[in-house]
Amino acid sequence: MVEEPRAWALVVPGHSERGRLSARCLTLVSLAAKLAAHRAPRVVVFTGRPWAGGPSEAGQMLAAWRGRTDVELLVEPTARTTAENAARSLPPLLERGVARATVVCSPLHRFRAAYFFGGLYGEFGVECEIQAARDRTTAGALAWELGALALMRRQRREALAEVRSIFGGGT
């Protein structure tokens, strides 16, 4: 008997500037498409909120997708933070039997992405890896990441509580 490979997913958290996807985010979508070209994921999840009532980051990423069309492309349009990206992208992965996920982010965002996605996904039995796209580090992006460090523990507790309210206590 041949063992079926474990289901794999790609997750792309959004980033926008004044309601439009940033060049950084378009780079993430492009990298996700390249990864999907080599190995078909069960699902690609674009996650990110709307800006001032406009289209969501997730919807804009879907519109920018130039990758495979033979995989499920899912829009999660409500997450406002990296912790919410992790919490709100996890339920559809669990519902689809995903056992492994690759989160595509910028190099500077890698630490926080690993903290939120790796911790939360791992709690529910989904193995997580972070794939950083090549990106130019800006002073503004560095300041944002450093400022966000102070909120991480509280945000992860809230994200974990959100997912537990749906699925119970994890593994």
Summary tags:
171 residues, alpha/beta, 7 strands, globular
- Tell me the number of helical segments per DSSP (H or I, 4 or more residues long): 6
Quaternary structure type: single chain
Please state the overall shape, judged from the principal axes of the Cα atoms: globular
Order of helices and strands: EEEHEHEHEHEHH
Number of strands: 7
Strand order of the largest sheet: 5-4-1-6-7
Q: Report the structural category.
A: alpha/beta
- How much strand content do the residues show? 15-25%
Q: Which range best describes the helical content: under 10%, 10-25%, 25-40%, 40-55%, 55-70% or over 70%?
A: 40-55%
Biggest sheet descriptor: 5 strands, parallel
Q: Please state the CA-atom Rg, rounded to the nearest Å.
A: 15 Å
Task: Report on the architecture of this protein.
The protein is α/β, with parallel strands linked by helices. Helix content is 46%, strand content 19%. The chain contains 6 helices and 7 strands, in the order βββαβαβαβαβαα. The strands form 2 sheets. It has a 5-stranded parallel sheet with strand order 5-4-1-6-7. The chain has a two-stranded antiparallel sheet with strand order 2-3. α2 (57-64) links the parallel β4 and β5 (72-76). α3 runs parallel beside α4 (110-123). The mean pLDDT is 91.
